[in-house]
Amino acid sequence: MLSNIRNRLILIAILVVASVWSLVPKNITIRERGPDGRMRDTTVRRVPLKRGLDLQGGIHLALEIDQSLGPVADPAGALERALTVIRSRVDEFGVEEPLIQKVGNERIVVELAGVDDTERAKGITRRTAFLEWRITDMQNLFRDALPTIDAALARAGVQTTTGAATPAALETLLGADTAGQVADTGAADTTFTPGQPGPLSSLLFQGQIPGEFRVREEDFPRVDSLIQIAEVERALPRGRELLWASEPVSLGGRSYRPLYSVERRAVLTGEQLTDARATIDPTNNQRIVRFDLTRSGGRRFRNETRQHVGDYMAIILDGRVFRQPPVIRSEIGRTGQIELGTGSLQEAQDLALVLRAGALPAPLRIVEERMVGPSLGRDSIRQGQRAALVAALMVIGIMVIYYRLAGLLAITALAFYILFTLGGLASFGATLTLPGLAGFVLSLGMAVDANVLIFERIREELKLGKTPRSAVDSGFQNAMPAIIDANVTTVITAAFLFQFGTGPVKGFAVTLIVGIIASLITAVFVTKTLFLVWLQRRAAAKELSI
Q1: Theoretical Cys-Cys bridge with 421: which of 214, 352, 359, 518, CB 3.0 to 4.6 Å?
Q2: Which residues face 44 on adjacent strands?
């Protein structure tokens, strides 16, 4: 018997040490590449129990499908697919216990706990991330069609803007030295018509590569409206499309927006992409995103690029040309890269993240945005602590009054239950939410309920005239089937909540499951050990205070 008690106490001590260890904050070292391209170690303090949105604040976003850019054929289906894509992105974003759910048939609600970078979170959730590779207008068909387009605009009543982009005007805008440098690359070839430049050509500067044009930043809204006029779209060469660059460029101290004429047919799309990862090119310290394609995508990419060696290929993301199109120097297979220049590594990581998660089936717009302040978290914590404290005090009072010494042993085991539950939650990396606190209080009551079943069975055995030791053994043995049935059915229910629930529901389910497991350990194992220790010290006792 002494050996049995000693082994039980050793096992309880191991569980206590493991629980305490999991609750101690730890410093972890993360090895990452710094802005200078060198690897460095960063020490981060990891908090064992993270708090959810309702306990620490965060970001609340409501998104709907943006049909202002064009009608969506199946809005309900697009919303379902968008929900899946956003969940994948947020999972890789690293937010603990996010809430991502559909509200009605038109809206997606996203709640991210502990995130204070609003713009980054909005970019990751809302970015369409549709990736294409297209060849630029190598035959300069758009440039040759500009006289026809200007004539169509003139017939539509569009007037030519004063201050046409002639070579002399270019020199005035950029300065003599810069204008000479640009002219060497062909950028000064801005006279697209034999006579006076027209409504559109007067606003365009020839770029450095075929199909590239530049528009002064102040003229960008006017040109963007002109190229969307029906007459211009009808006059565009067959198989060509005009797309803006994602960012403006600076030349001679002035800002210009590149405009590209590209083929409508895509060489490849991001649907054939299987992986994307951000890294730094050690040779030039540029941020790049390396990507891998499917087998069929790699085969098609190789065949297409083999036919276009020497041509320029635009990388198009969300309908915008991503930086200046590179030249195809040789055929490209299943692996390639997108260069981001000397931008931040986080920008490259975010791009790789959205590419891996896939493109949204339709553009989204944010219809509601708010920050959940920390005051809500403090109020929630205070209310949850008060509820747990009141529940614990009531349980302690009832158990001690009704079961006397046995009640005190149950309360002692309850302290172990609290430690084991918190330690289990910390070891699993769970996030504590307000519903999670409710699950904790519920499992607290179930832990006491198991003790009540055992104590009533012990009372029945004592009434039959058995000794305290025999009554304790029989009581635990007879109560075991009912305890297991009650707890297993509850765990199954909580498992379904965890599998099919989201956000707070999952937090409630996780806390309930861990709490039930801890209650089984304490009610069946710890409480009996305490009884055995008490009986060992009072071997001659004829009565049991219960």
Answers
A1: 518
A2: 28
Q: Determine if the pTM surpasses 0.70.
A: no
Q: Looking at the structure, do residues 283 and 389 belong to the same domain, yes or no?
A: no
Tell me whether residue 51 is in a domain.
no
Sheet containing strand 273-281, edge to edge, reads 273-281, 286-293, 335-339
Cβ contact 22:32 at 8 Å: no
Distance CA 442, CA 395 (A): 12
Cβ neighbours, 10 Å, residue 187: 23
Instruction: Report how far residue 79's alpha carbon sits from residue 107's, in angstroms, rounded to the nearest whole number.
Output: 8
> Quick one: 506 and 447 in the same domain?
yes
Phi and psi, residue 266, nearest 5°? -85, 135
CA–CA gap between residue 56 and residue 509 (Å, rounded): 20
Q: HSE of 179 in the Cβ direction (CA atoms, 13 Å)? A: 16
Q: In this structure, are 258 and 352 located in the same domain?
A: yes
- Residue 103 sits at the vertex; the CA angle it makes with 102 and 106, to the nearest 5 degrees, is 90
Residue 50: inside a domain, yes or no?
no
Read out DSSP for 89-158? Answer: HHHHHT-SS-EEEEETTTEEEEEEET---HHHHHHHHH----EEEEEB-TT-HHHHHHHHHHHHHHHTTP
Pick from 159, 173, 175, 169: which is nearest to 190 by CA? 169
Q: How many residues does the chain have?
A: 546
In the structure encoding, which two tokens stand for residue 225, read together? 């409206």
Condensed to tens digits (0 to 9), the pLDDT of residues 94-149 reads 666 677 888 888 899 888 877 767 787 888 787 777 888 999 999 999 999 999 99
The residue among 443 and 172 whose pLDDT is bigger is 443
Residue span of the structural domain in which 303 resides: 129-359
Q: Is residue 384 part of a domain?
A: yes
CA distances from 485 to 372, 445, 490 (A): 41, 16, 9
Does residue 526 lie within any of the structural domains? yes
63: which 2 tokens? 């998104």
- Residue 213 CB contacts under 8 Å (≥ 6 apart), including other chains: 204, 205, 206, 207, 258, 259, 260, 261
- Are 161 and 278 part of one and the same domain? yes
